[in-house]
């Protein structure tokens, strides 16, 4: 999940981050039988949750995501390639 400052763009209402969080929560809720992990990134990347089948935990983590999840003074940018790796 991208938590870089570009996710505050308002080309989606209210912003990219909130719209993406809603889509991700829906994906988690509809998932059946698969484990899901959550990786967040800006310039830096970290695993917020390893693979789990705990939907309540994952949804709670997604709800709490914000630009503050990663310190942007230390970590500006978007390391999508590193996140995919």
Describe the structure.
Strands 1-2 form a two-stranded antiparallel sheet. The two termini are 13 Å apart. With 85 residues, the chain is α+β, with helices and mostly antiparallel strands. Helix 1 runs antiparallel to helix 2 (55-64). It is built from three helices and two strands; from the N terminus they run H-E-E-H-H. The mean pLDDT is 90. The longest helix has 15 residues, at 16-30. The chain has helices spanning 16-30, 55-64, 80-84; strands at 36-41, 45-52. It is globular.
Helix-strand blueprint:
Blueprint: H1 16-30, E1 36-41, E2 45-52, H2 55-64, H3 80-84
Antiparallel strand pairs: 1-2
Summarize the structure.
This protein is an alpha+beta fold.
Q: What is the overall silhouette?
A: globular
Percent in helix: 25-40%
Rg calculated over all Cα atoms: 13 Å
Count all strands and give the number.
2
Largest sheet: 2 strands, antiparallel
What's the helix count? 3
- Strand proportion, as a percent range, falls in 15-25%
Query: How would you classify the helix and strand content by structural class?
Result: alpha+beta
Order of helices and strands: HEEHH
List keywords for this structure.
single chain; 85 residues; alpha+beta; two-stranded antiparallel sheet; 3 helices; 2 strands; 35% helix; globular
